[in-house]
Write a structure and sequence with these properties.
single chain; mainly alpha
Length: 90
């Protein structure tokens, strides 16, 4: 699903962070359910139960992005690309 081994590993690391409470109890529950195979990403996207916590997380990201300078945003993009794609040429 993730497209590469690196991306799959990053998705799993992120889910583990969420499961451990990194974004609140609702997303911890969602991450546990995904990691344990009780729900798919497609079902998460369709679920009204997770809509509000996911929207809040997205709003927080958008607020950070609006406040971060271009250098910080570029650093995050480069770091994310490296974590997702490893040493592949983009």
């Amino acid at each position: 699903m993730a497209g590469s081994r690196e991306a799959a590993e990053e998705v799993k690391r992120t889910l583990v962070t969420l499961r451990d409470g990194g974004a609140g109890p609702e997303l911890a529950e969602m991450a546990r359910d995904v990691l344990e195979g009780r729900i798919s990403f497609r079902d998460v996207a369709r679920s009204s139960a997770y809509a509000e916590p996911l929207m809040k997380a997205q709003e927080a990201l958008l607020r950070w992005r609006a406040q971060a300078d271009e250098e910080e945003q570029a650093r995050l993009v480069a770091e994310t690309q490296k974590r997702l794609y490893g040493d592949q040429d983009l």
